[in-house]
Amino acid sequence: MNRDVEEEEARHIAKRNGFSYVMPVLRSKREFHFEHKLVQRARTKRSVDLSRKLKTEPAVSAAIQQPGYLRSKRGYKQIRGIPLPDLTEHSNMAKTDAAPNDPLYPKQWYINNTGQAGGVPKLDLNVEPAWALGFTGKGVTTAIMDDGIDYMHPDLADNFNAEASYDFSSNDPFPYPRYTDDWFNSHGTRCAGEIAAMKNNEICGVGVAYESKVAGLRMLDQPYMTDLIEANSMGHMPQNIDIYSASWGPTDDGRTVDGPRNATMRAIVKGVNEGRNGSGSIYVWASGDGGPNDDCNCDGYAASMWTISINSATNDGQTASYDESCSSTLASTFSNGKTGDQDAGVATTDLYGKCTTRHSGTSAAAPEAAGVFALALEANNKLTWRDVQHLTVLTSKRNHLDDHKHRHNWTINGAGLEFNHLFGYGVLDAGDMVDMARNWITVPERWHCSADVITGNYPFSTGNPLTLTIDTTACQGQENQVNYLEHVQAFITLRATRRGDVTIHLVSPMNTTSMLLGKRVNDGNSKSGFTKWPFMTTHAWAENPKGRWRLIISLDGNEPQSGTLLEWNLLLHGTRTSPYVQQTANLLRHSKLALVKRQHETDRKFSEF
C-alpha cells in the first residue's frame, strides 16, 4: 500500500477486485495477504491480469504474487525392523512407584536412560533434576509450526493454548490435522507430546515440560509453501508465544541450497528483536535428515544465527544414519535408538488419542530441545534469545556422544569450549541449564563488525586449493568492537564446475577450524554455485576474533573440477565486554573453570575490567 491504511479499507480493495482478504502481513498496516479463487494454490504461472487489476487501486503501490516452493517434514520415517506395536492397551508396560504413572514413561529413554532398548545409562536430557527443582514449564508456550495438533488428545488437551493457535493452511483458528489413511499428518502431534504431554494421568508418556502449553500453527500440510505463510507463522502472536519449534525445512536431498525468503527473514528478525516483550522469540530448528551426503549449512533456516539448530544422537551416543553435520549446529538431543528394538523410537502422543514409540529423526530432536528451553524460561523469564544460546553452549555435555562413523572429533576452541562438528557443544542438560538459568545475568549488548570483504576472481581446482586471509582488528576503537565472539558468518559467492565437490574451511585467529561446507556427492550443480550465501559457524564461540582469519576452499572429487571465488565477506557477531565475567560463581559451580580463567585473561588483555 502507498500509506498506512485501516484493515477495513484493505478488505474493501480485496472485495472490489474479486479477492478474498486473508490477513495483514506481520501485523503491518501497509501489507496485506489476498487470495483469488481463480489462481491455483500451487502457482504454475503468473497471473498478470489479476496483479495489474490490483495495481489500478490508488492505495496499492505493489501487488506481488507468491510463488510456491517445497518444504519437507523431517523424520517422517518408520524405524526399520520395528513392528508397529498396539498401544491401545498399556497394562503390560512396567513402571515403578517412584516414576510417573504414565505407561510409556519407562520407554522414554531420552528423559531417563536406564539402559533400556540397548541404550547407555544416563545418556539422556537429565530432565528429572530440573523437575526436582520445581520447574515443569509453567507459564511458557511453545508453538509447533507443523501439520497441526490433535488438540483433543487426552494427553494434550489441558496443555493446549487455543488462543495462540491458528491454521494458516485453512485460514481459521482450528489447527486440527487433515485426515490421511497413512497418518502422514501425525508429525505435529508427536512433536507436541514430547514437550507438553501431561504427567501422572496414566496416558502415553510425559512431556519434557509437562506443565507448559503448546500452540498449533498448522502451516505445513499443503503441496507448496509461500513466503507469507512462513512469515505469518513465525510472527504469530510473539507476545503470547515464547518458543517456535520447527521440524521441517528445504528438501534433504543433498543438492538443495535454500532458505527463508524476504518476509520470513523479516519475521524472524522482528521476533528476536521484539518478541517476548523485547527479550526475543526462541526459534528452535531441526538440523536436517539428509545424512552424511548433505550439509545443514546449505539450509538457511538451520544455519541462521537467529535460530537454535539441534541435531540428534541415538540412545547409545552414536550418529543416526540420517544426521546432517554442519558448523552452525549448536547442540543435540535424541531421535531414535538402535534399530531392531521395539522401544528404540521416541515415545510420545499420536493422532486420535493414540500413543507411539516410533517417532524419529531430527524432527524428534527439535521439540525435545524446545521442552528443555521451556524449563529454563520458567526458571528465569528474563532470559533473552541470546541468553538461551549462551546457556546451551555452556551447559551442553559431551557425555557418551561419539561420532565414530564420520570421525568428527571433539575439539576445544580458543576459549576452552569443547565442540563437535556433528553434535555441536553436546547433548542438552536440562538440570544444569535450569540451575544456571536461575542466577543468570543477561549478557552484554551484541555488536556486528565487518572484518573485511575480498572481491575478485580467485581460481581453485582439484588438487589446487585456494587460501585467502583477512587480517582484522575486529573494529577495535569503535563502538561496535567485538572482543568475544558468538556467531561468525562468511558470505560466499563462488562458481564451480561441480558444486557438490566444493569444501570450505574457516580458521580463526585462535586456530579453531570450522568446516563451513562439506562434500555433497549428490550435488552436481555446475551453474548456480553460491551467491552471497551466509555460511555460519558457532565453533569460535567466546574467542577473541582479532587477528588473521583463513578461508580454505578445495575441490574433493574423483574427476578434475575447477571453480572461482568471487567474494568473501567476513562478519563477526559478539560482545565488546565479556559475557561471562559476571557469571563467575555460576560457571565455577558448573565446572567451567577453564573458561573462567581464559575470560579473565582476555579481560586483562583488553583492560576492560
From TrEMBL:
GO CC terms, sorted: extracellular space; membrane; neuron projection
One GO-annotated biological process of the protein: peptide hormone processing
Location within or outside the cell: Secreted
Main EC class the enzyme belongs to: hydrolase
Catalyzed reactions per annotation: Release of protein hormones and neuropeptides from their precursors, generally by hydrolysis of -Lys-Arg-|- bonds
Recorded GO MF terms: serine-type endopeptidase activity
Primary residence: secreted
Keywords: Cleavage on pair of basic residues, Disulfide bond, Glycoprotein, Hydrolase, Protease, Secreted, Serine protease, Signal, Zymogen
Ranges of residues in domain P/Homo B: 442-578
PROSITE patterns: P_HOMO_B, SUBTILASE, SUBTILASE_ASP, SUBTILASE_HIS, SUBTILASE_SER
Catalytic residue positions: 146, 187, 363
Keyword S-adenosyl-L-methionine: no
EC number: 3.4.21.94
InterPro entries, per database record: Galactose-bd-like_sf, Kexin/furin, P_dom, Peptidase_S8/S53_dom, Peptidase_S8/S53_dom_sf, Peptidase_S8_Asp-AS, Peptidase_S8_His-AS, Peptidase_S8_Ser-AS
Family: Belongs to the peptidase S8 family. Furin subfamily.
Name of the molecule in the record: Neuroendocrine convertase 2
High-level lineage: Eukaryota, Metazoa, Spiralia, Lophotrochozoa, Annelida
